[in-house]
Amino acid sequence: KRKPKVIRTDGGPQEGKRGKGDADQDGRYYSEECEVDLRDPIKDYELYRETCQELQRLMAEIQELKSRGIKDNASEIDERRIQSCVHFMTLKKLNRLAHIRLKKGRDQTHEAKQKVDAYHLQLQNLLYEVMHLQKEITKCLEFKSKHEEIELVSLEEFYKEAPPEISRPAITLSEPHQQTLARLDWELEQRKRLAEKYKECLTSKEKILKEIEVKKEYLSSLQPRLNSIMQASLPVQEYLFMPFDQAHKQYETARHLPPPLYVLFVQASAYGQACDKKLMVAIEGSVEEAKALYKPPEDSQDDESDSDAEEEQTTKRRRPTLGVQLDDKRKEMLKRHPLSVTVDLKCKDENVLHLTFYYLMNLNVMTVKAKVTTAVEMTTAISAGDLLSPDSVLNCLYPGDHGRKTPNPANQFQFDKVGILTLSDYVTELGHPYVWVQKLGGLHFPKDQPQASCNPFPLHLNIELGELTGKLLRSRLQSRLALHKQFASLGECLGTVAGSPCRGELTNVTFSGATALQCHPQDSGGVHGASLQLEAPWAAGDILLSCSAKLQAAVVLNPGYSTLPPIFSLCLNWKGERTSSNDDNIRAMESEVNVYYKELWGPKPGHQLLTNQLQRLCMVLDVYLETEPHDPSVEGPKEFPQEKMCLRLVRGPMRLKPFKFNYPQGFFSHR
């Protein structure tokens, strides 16, 4: 190893020891901070320029001497090098002085800034005190006493009725303030007297009510005793779960049902007793009117005089117009049977679907009306108003069965005679004539057009059809209730969807186009049958700032939700309008919810699919905005900084973004 060179000088301190010269040098070094205040910066700058010019001159001379290559020039070169070193030392000192000046300037600026902040804080405190005092002054100026709202008696009545110790005419007549106080005292005395009278009246009222209650209890106790005597066998029937009396009454009433309703009643009762204890079947309507329909017309030959008198009265009356006659014929054509069959389907969560079946006697078709009763009171959402509507809750229970047209081809000829265009104008009053309702009643009609090989209804017995229909009805009720809850939560606009940590915020949910859940065929885009259309716009960005990106989602819900998934169509308004037709990434976002919906299904039966799809849309919207390149022409930070973890921002010639979410790793990747 090479030993380090040690330079020794005469009279210098030994190596490793600190001498007096070093202490003097440190003193000189630290005295430069004081020297800064004594030196002129402009002169230092001029010295810096002269030193740099001198260095340039010396370097040029050294270069010229070296280029000559004369050996005698070595001493001159050494002299110029020594001069250059001296100039370098001067530059170092000027550099140290410049740094010291900079540090002092920063310290002075910081101190001045602190003083300005202190003065500004004092100013804000004073302004706040001024504002507070102005508010207090305004309150005092706008103060209104409550006695101004009290209707006091007139001055004449006051001086006439009030005692002298309260009215004090000698003082109150000359001083308005004392007069007001005296009138208030008199008002207080009157109210105390009225309050005592009111209490006395209440006590007397309570006594009378107690006497009435005792008499009512005595009268009401007589009715249960009479019922217990008349129906002594009913407790035994209830104990043995054999309601023979009730069943006997139902069967007696069922004898007056028309054949289709009778078939429905028998099949539904048998299925409820054997397979479904939560299915309740009952008969409603007037039995007397049903009996009157089957009575033969009475012989009118014995009442010739009465008929002659009626003819004379009819000739005197004006004949009804053609419009009135048509209205009467229409009412007769659409007349329902007096009796109807009600079926109550109860679910596990105690929600009930009430179905009332009617029979149109002249049209020979059956109709049904639906009503939903929930175990818990549902919050009414504007966007979910038609989900549980009686006119739409049963639409398309089987594919293609809209319930807007009569299934009996013969009815069209009957309608032409009375001027009825279609039965859909009367379904709100009469009920919907679904095809499955006719099947349950044993009514079978030929189709208007030849059907394909696939039949929406199974060609089995009515019992099997009834079992399948019951399952479909319960599934429809549960799915609609789940949608109702989701729409209620989405309509509140309380931040992110389902607690998602996404930047996308759901602002509102509104229906667009046709009335919600109205049956109309959608033959394009893979949507068939009746559909529900709604719009859900998102706004991305800070909640406190104005949103620059807005995602408009048009959703089509099939009545068979959640077996058939919703279909989304997106439109992003951000730096122009972006749709699936002009942006491949928007098409990829639609695929995430339309094609890969099975990943969002969740636990069976998948009623939360719509909420999960909306949450996934919020996530992919964040990915779309965060992975957009920053525009260099725009000053400031990026509008949507990246928060999501993505393995790769774009891929392929179409520059697709990573929309696939990998759980539980928590990152996004390409499919």
What's this model, at a glance?
This protein is α+β, with helices and mostly antiparallel strands and 671 residues long. It has four domains: 32-110; 154-242; 255-294 and 325-447 and 461-479, no CATH class; 506-515 and 536-629 and 639-669, no CATH class. 48% of the residues lie in helices and 11% in strands.
Can you walk me through this structure?
There is one protein chain. 48% of the residues lie in helices and 11% in strands. The relative contact order is 0.04. It is flat and about 150 Å long. The model is unreliable at 1-18, 299-304, 452-461, 493-502, 504-531 and 538-546 (pLDDT under 50). The protein has 671 residues and is of the alpha+beta class. A hairpin with a 4-residue loop joins strand 3 and strand 4 (365-373). The longest helix has 68 residues, at 74-141. It folds into 4 domains: 32-110; 154-242; 255-294 and 325-447 and 461-479, no CATH class; 506-515 and 536-629 and 639-669, no CATH class. Strands 5, 6, 7, 8, 9 and 10 form a 6-stranded antiparallel sheet that branches. It has a 4-stranded antiparallel sheet with strand order 1-2-3-4.
